[in-house]
Write a structure and sequence with these properties.
Strand content: under 5%
Order of helices and strands: HHHHHHHHHH
Structural class: mainly alpha
Number of strands: 0
CATH topology of the largest domain: Tetracycline Repressor, domain 2
Protein name: DNA-binding transcriptional regulator, AcrR family
Pfam families: TetR_C_43, TetR_N
Distance between the termini: 17 Å
Keywords: DNA-binding, Transcription, Transcription regulation
Number of helices: 10
GO molecular function, one term: transcription cis-regulatory region binding
Number of domains: 2
CATH architecture of the largest domain: Orthogonal Bundle
Largest sheet: none
CATH superfamily of the largest domain: Tetracycline Repressor, domain 2
Length: 217
C-alpha cells in the first residue's frame, strides 16, 4: 500500500498485518469476486477472522481499502511517468497500465463504481489519480502530441469506458481491450480534425458528486 492510503500512526507490525490482509483479500476477490466471505480471506491470509475485523470492521471497508490501494498504485505510476522524456508516450503508457489493471481484476473494477462513490478515502485516492492524469495530459499537449481540448478528467472517464467496451467478451478474448485502447489513442492524437461538441465534465461540481462528496481527510 502507498503511504498516501495507509492509515497514519500505524505501528510497523500492524502495517505488515494490514498489508498481508489486503494482499490476501485481493487474491480471493480476483478469484471469487467481492461476494467472497471474510472467512475465505482469513484462511488465505492464515489468520483468524477476528484479525480481519480488527483492521477492517466491515467487508466494505476492506474493499474500499483495496480500491484505494489500486488507485494509489496507478497514481504512483503516473507520477513516475510525469518525468518521462516523451510525454505523449508516457500518457499512453499510463492509460495502458490502468486498463490492464482493470482487466486483471474485474470484480474490483465493478465494485469501485457507485457503491463506493461516497467513501471519503476512495474519493481522496481518486482525486490524487485525477490530479496526476491532468499533469500527464498537459505535458502531452505541450508536446503537441494530443489534441488540446482534452482534460485529465476526460482521460479518467475514458479508462473505464475502454474496459467496459471489451468486458462482455473478455472471457474469450482477454486482451480485446487493447483494440479499443488503440482506437482511443488515435482519437486523442493531434491535430484534431473536428472540435469536441461539449466541454469536459467537471467531476467535482456535478450534482451527483456534490451530493455525496466529503472533504478529503
Amino acid at each position: 500500500m502507498s503511504a498516501a492510503s495507509e492509515p497514519p500512526g500505524l505501528r510497523a507490525d500492524a502495517a505488515r498485518n494490514r498489508r498481508l490482509l489486503l494482499d490476501a483479500a485481493a487474491t480471493v476477490f480476483a478469484e471469487h469476486g467481492t461476494q467472497a466471505s471474510i472467512a475465505q480471506i482469513a484462511q488465505q491470509a492464515g489468520v483468524a477472522k477476528g484479525t480481519v475485523f480488527r483492521h477492517f470492521p466491515t467487508k466494505d471497508d476492506l474493499v474500499a481499502a483495496i480500491i484505494c490501494d489500486q488507485l494509489d498504485l496507478l497514481a504512483a505510476v503516473g507520477t513516475r511517468l510525469s518525468e518521462a522524456a516523451d510525454p505523449t508516450a508516457a500518457l499512453f503508457e499510463f492509460m495502458t497500465t490502468a486498463v490492464d489493471l482493470q482487466s486483471r481484476d474485474r470484480s474490483l473494477c465493478q465494485a469501485s463504481g457507485e457503491a463506493f462513490a461516497d467513501n471519503r478515502a476512495v474519493q481522496a485516492a481518486a482525486d490524487r489519480l485525477t490530479e496526476i492524469a491532468e499533469v500527464l495530459t498537459a505535458r502531452a499537449q505541450a508536446q503537441q502530441g494530443i489534441r488540446d481540448d482534452v482534460t485529465g478528467q476526460d482521460v479518467i472517464l475514458l479508462l473505464r469506458g475502454i474496459y467496459q467496451a471489451a468486458a462482455p467478451l473478455c472471457d474469450h478474448q482477454p486482451t480485446l481491450w487493447r483494440r479499443y485502447l488503440a482506437l482511443v489513442f488515435e482519437g486523442l492524437r493531434s491535430p484534431a480534425t473536428q472540435p469536441l461538441p461539449l466541454p469536459a465534465p467537471d467531476l467535482f461540481s456535478s450534482p451527483r458528486t456534490q451530493a455525496g462528496r466529503h472533504p478529503a481527510p
